[in-house]
Design goal:
- The complex is a heterodimer.
- Chain A folds into two domains: 55 residues; 230 residues, MetI-like (MetI-like fold, Orthogonal Bundle), CATH 1.10.3720.
- Chain A is globular, with a radius of gyration of 24 Å.
- In chain A, α9 packs across α10, α11 runs antiparallel to α15 and α13 packs across α15.
- Chain A has 15 helices and no strands.
- By secondary structure, chain A is mostly helical.
- By secondary structure, chain B is an all-alpha fold.
- Chain B folds into two domains: 66 residues, no CATH class; 239 residues, MetI-like fold (Orthogonal Bundle).
- Chain B has 17 helices and two strands.
- Chain B has a two-stranded antiparallel sheet.
- The chains are: A mainly alpha, B mainly alpha.
- Chain A: InterPro entries: MetI-like, MetI-like_sf.
- Chain A: Belongs to the binding-protein-dependent transport system permease family.
- Chain A: This is ABC transmembrane type-1 domain-containing protein.
Chain lengths: 289, 321
């Protein structure tokens, strides 16, 4: 009797977990399959998760579009520059906040935490960005998000875990606080730097609201904006891609899927390798937060 | 989050200053490098977090882009009154609250259930596989998720409608059905974040003492009883903290996804405060009015999180501060 109930529970829970896996993966496999299939099969709705009539025409069209390359270039630049700036500002700030002997530490911490609960909002922030002359520039993409309070606190928690003795030994060697940070703390914290860098990089790569608010010139648009114009608005601003696909609803579908795959692929490819860093970061945030 | 055990540097500094003026110099000498390292961060917070708060003064002015904040005319509470008298006011409040509450009611328990199921899995490899897969959508951009939702639900050739027509029903134009929007939003949120949000509970579950399970087994507890009497109390702290945070942020629905999923045909359910603020402020250029609506909502949100924290501190002695 007892054994039977256990196995029933087991069967149900395994089924639910498998359902989660299928519901998560199916959309990606389907999009990949459709984007690689021949038009005739797509039109007859015959494609599920395996491509039929395998061809790379859609990818040739997507990757043959200079606007696409420009958007990829923009996204890569915003992500690289933004991550670098964010990492420098956040790590130095987090380290100084982790040092219990810094004067005004508590007050500064309160100033930071308060912003998690209240802010000026979209429009006053836009006016600040505008008054700095950041609208329609690279800086508008990378500076307003240079510190995420969540990442700052996460990093402070990392640094707090480093034994005090190491800091003392640095002082014995005549290093000042900056020297201790650069020569001792940074080399010891490569994993945490990697984690925070990844959080920032994913955020920047996926960012849509900053370009929506702060960019006007189409040449500066990142991938996400191009994608949105293409898929959601079916807009003309993505030029060649829609013009070629525009004649045919079904072909357009595979074309759109191909575009989605191209812009997601970097994340899908690196994700399995970097997943553990993300989880480590989230765990520390969960335990301490 | 507050570390009360730490000596407050500020108080110490002030006391020292008052007693011995020469200490000021020492304060500077001891802290200059740390302060220098904190400086970029401080500038960031002052410019991008605090300056906008002071910029809220424009909600009491008729802000004009060319005259600037200081030169624009004062109008008092005009824009707040305008919003309260706006026929859309109640609709926007209703939409924002309902979407937030529905998202909380369905989105909060979902990861707890998934975490509990994962915790019962005996095969480590299968558990890791499910985790890896379920975290994935968390890293996909809102633009892509919204695109996928719209394309899959499309009445012409969308995956879901193909299934519906294959079963012999009429295709449904989901994205133009006002009654569907909240379900679409909430289910897509769950799809995107359920896996990632299990992490906090799985972390809490590893901290549950295995001896408690053994003791329960000796007492003849069934699997469900162990779940109810050992596992759930073991992670109750994580559940309560997450719940407070979620209640506090009920009204802070992410702008991006709602904006990307909505269209004018379904504004009656899909238009929320933040998307309305965007249209009024950024598209129509009515900065003062938009910012006033935003502030109005920000204050309600602040009251929400404060109340949630207060209640929780009284009821369960668990709180954020």
């Amino acid at each position: 009797m007892k054994l039977e109930r256990l196995s029933l529970f087991h069967v149900v829970s395994t089924a639910v977990l498998l359902l989660v896996v299928v519901v998560t993966l199916y959309p990606f496999l389907h999009m990949l399959a459709v984007s690689l299939s021949g038009d005739a099969y797509v039109m007859r709705n015959e494609v599920t998760i395996l491509p039929k009539g395998l061809n790379f025409n859609m990818y040739e069209i997507v990757l043959g579009d200079p606007k696409m390359w420009n958007a990829i270039k923009n996204t890569v630049v915003y992500t690289a520059v933004g991550t670098t700036i964010a990492l420098i500002v956040t790590s130095m700030g987090a380290y100084s906040l982790s040092r219990t002997n810094m004067a005004f530490r508590k007050g500064l911490m309160m100033m930071i935490v308060f912003t998690m609960f209240f802010g000026g909002g979209m429009i006053p922030t836009f006016l600040v960005v505008r008054s700095l002359g950041f609208v329609d520039t690279l800086w508008g993409m990378v500076i307003p998000g240079a510190v995420s309070t969540w990442n700052l606190i996460l990093m402070r928690t990392f640094f707090s875990g480093i034994p005090k003795e190491l800091e003392e030994s640095g002082r014995m060697d005549g290093l000042n606080d900056l020297g201790i940070f650069l020569r001792i703390i940074v080399p010891l914290s490569k994993a945490s730097f990697a984690t925070i860098a990844l959080f920032y990089a994913v955020g920047l790569w996926n960012n849509f609201i900053y370009p929506l608010l702060y960019l006007r010139t189409p040449d500066l648009f990142p991938l996400q904006v191009l994608l949105r114009n293409l898929v959601l608005a079916g807009s003309v601003s993505s030029g060649d891609v829609t013009r070629i696909g525009g004649d045919n609803q079904i072909v357009e579908e595979s074309l759109k899927y191909a575009t989605i795959m191209v812009s997601t692929l970097p994340i899908l490819i690196v994700y399995p390798f970097i997943q553990k860093y993300f989880v480590k970061g989230a765990m520390i945030g969960a335990v301490k937060g | 989050m507050a570390h009360t055990s730490v000596t407050s540097g500020m108080e110490e500094a002030i006391v020292l200053n008052r007693r011995r003026p020469g200490k000021l110099r020492r304060l500077w000498r001891n802290n200059k490098y740390l302060w220098l390292m904190f400086l970029p961060c401080l500038i960031y917070y002052l410019v991008f977090r605090y300056a906008p708060m002071f910029g809220l003064v424009i909600t009491f002015k008729n802000y004009n882009l060319f005259r600037g904040v200081w030169e624009s005319d004062w109008v008092g509470f005009k824009y707040y009154r305008m919003f309260l008298e706006n026929p859309d006011f109640l609709l926007l409040m209703k939409n924002t609250f309902l979407l937030g509450i529905m998202n909380l009611a369905l989105g909060f328990p979902a990861p707890i259930i998934l975490a509990l199921l994962l915790n019962e899995v005996r095969k480590a490899a299968f558990k890791r596989f499910v985790q890896t897969v379920s975290y994935l959508p968390h890293f996909i951009s809102n633009v892509i998720v919204a695109s996928m939702v719209i394309m899959f639900l499309s009445p012409t050739g969308g995956l879901i409608n193909e299934l519906i027509t294959a079963l012999g029903f009429e295709p449904i134009n989901f994205m133009n059905e006002p009654g569907m929007f909240r379900w679409i939003y909430v289910l897509s949120e769950i799809w995107q974040h359920i896996g990632w949000e299990t992490i906090i509970y799985l972390a809490a579950l590893t901290a549950v003492d295995p001896q408690l399970y053994e003791a329960a087994s000796i007492d003849g507890a069934s699997r469900m009883r162990k779940l109810w009497h050992v596992t759930l109390p073991g992670i109750s702290f994580a559940i309560v903290i997450t719940l407070i945070l979620n209640i506090g942020s009920v009204l802070e629905i992410g702008f991006e996804k709602v904006f990307l999923l909505q269209n004018p045909a379904i504004y009656e359910t899909a238009d929320i405060i933040s998307t309305y603020v965007y249209r009024i402020g950024m598209e129509q250029g009515n900065f003062s009015y938009g910012a006033a609506i935003d502030l109005f909502m920000g204050i309600i949100s602040l009251i929400f999180i404060y109340t949630a924290n207060f209640v929780s501190r009284r009821v369960s002695e668990t709180s954020l501060w």
